[in-house]
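User: Just a sanity check before I run the rest of the batch. Below are the structure tokens for the first item. I only need the designed sequence back.
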């Protein structure tokens, strides 16, 4: 028998794991949950099965999520993960990264489509969001009157500021038609104008439970509200369309109370700080005013007003004298420049030559100078320009 390489069991399982993990990318798989164990370590162990087969699956750190999604044995789910091998038992299994109840994919698709549509319309723009008032004294809460969310909000709010006025509009927070009741609550508070801020809230749940908060009718009612609105729906990891449309998102109902109502100690510290700053500002203003007053009282005009007036009078006289000198110099310069211009004009003027005995002959119009005898036929009346006046002339034919 030829010699063959002998593998250990661990080497075989390692090779199989490498082949499995290297050949298949992560993928989605659907099935019914069986043998579910939510271990205290935080991991979830289960079997996924259909009518013909089953596969083991482990969701590391997923016990809490499975509990929150209310996944039980017999639940129909879709999981996303990657095949691997559990080395100690030589069993292949699916290492789960995400889990959702079956059908959640279609809801998620609807969520994304509506989110994109409303975002393109500008419903989520930061520029349209209203400012939440600091320490509102009148709060309107829209939620189930029997839910834990309301009790959590009331407990924290009233403990922090007992003087609050909290008005509750009871509404269904899950199920068909809940979104219409929630939207009506928003319109009610806007009509009554009896609150400073509206809180839309409910506790956690599955995507189906929270779906009314993903409906378009509620998103548009939130956007149309003239009163600032806080959305506090589900747990911190839950996001709804209402969160994006609201002026402020709180992670939980309790978180909404904490964000709206500061602790009394924080308020006291703020007031103490503002009071200190006010006193400091007043003291600084007083000190600056007193210094300016002292400076004025010690100034020369107030100490010796007559001397100050005489000094300013002398300064005025000197300024007047300087201005008169400047004007006289400017006038002399202007007269000198004018004489130069006149001399140049006289030098260049054609009439200057007349003073030396010359004359100029103009045509019948008395304006056009003649340069050629042909311009004055016999009998033409002409004008002669002399140094001291003009004479009329008549041309004759030259013989």
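Assistant: Here's the designed sequence for the first item:
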């Amino acid at each position: 028998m030829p010699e063959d390489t002998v593998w250990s069991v661990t080497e075989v399982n390692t090779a199989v794991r490498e082949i499995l993990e290297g050949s298949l990318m992560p993928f989605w798989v659907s099935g019914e949950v069986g043998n579910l164990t939510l271990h205290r370590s935080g991991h979830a162990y289960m079997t996924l099965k259909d009518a013909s087969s089953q596969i083991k699956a482990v969701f590391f750190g997923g016990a809490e999520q499975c509990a929150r999604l209310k996944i039980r044995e017999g639940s129909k789910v879709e999981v996303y993960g990657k095949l691997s091998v559990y080395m100690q038992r030589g069993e292949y299994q699916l290492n789960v990264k995400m889990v959702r109840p079956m059908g959640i994919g279609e809801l998620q698709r609807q969520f994304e489509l509506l989110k994109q549509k409303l975002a393109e319309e500008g419903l989520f723009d930061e520029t349209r969001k209203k400012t939440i008032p600091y320490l509102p004294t009148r709060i309107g809460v829209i939620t189930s009157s029997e839910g834990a969310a309301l009790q959590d909000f009331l407990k924290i709010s009233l403990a922090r500021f007992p003087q609050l006025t909290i008005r509750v509009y009871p509404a269904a927070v899950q199920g068909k038609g809940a979104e219409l009741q929630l939207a009506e609550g928003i319109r009610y508070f806007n009509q009554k104008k009896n609150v400073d801020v509206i809180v839309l809230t409910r506790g956690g749940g599955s995507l189906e439970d929270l779906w009314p908060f993903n409906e378009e009718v509620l998103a548009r009612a939130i956007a149309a509200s003239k009163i600032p609105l806080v959305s506090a729906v589900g747990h911190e990891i839950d996001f709804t369309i209402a969160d994006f449309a609201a002026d402020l998102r709180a992670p939980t109902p309790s978180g909404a109370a904490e964000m709206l109502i500061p602790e009394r100690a924080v308020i006291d510290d703020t007031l103490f700080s503002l009071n200190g700053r006010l006193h400091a500002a007043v003291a600084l203003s007083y000190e600056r005013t007193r210094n300016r007053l002292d400076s004025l009282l010690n100034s020369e005009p107030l100490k010796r007003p007559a001397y100050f007036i005489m000094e300013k009078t002398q300064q005025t006289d000197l300024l007047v004298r300087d201005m008169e000198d400047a004007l006289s110099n400017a006038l002399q310069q202007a007269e000198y420049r004018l004489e130069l211009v006149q001399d140049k004009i006289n030098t260049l003027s054609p009439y200057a030559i007349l003073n030396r005995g010359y004359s100029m002959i103009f045509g019948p119009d008395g304006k056009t100078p003649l340069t050629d005898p042909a311009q004055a036929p016999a009998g033409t009346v002409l004008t002669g320009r002399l140094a001291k006046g003009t004479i009329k002339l008549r041309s004759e034919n030259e013989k």
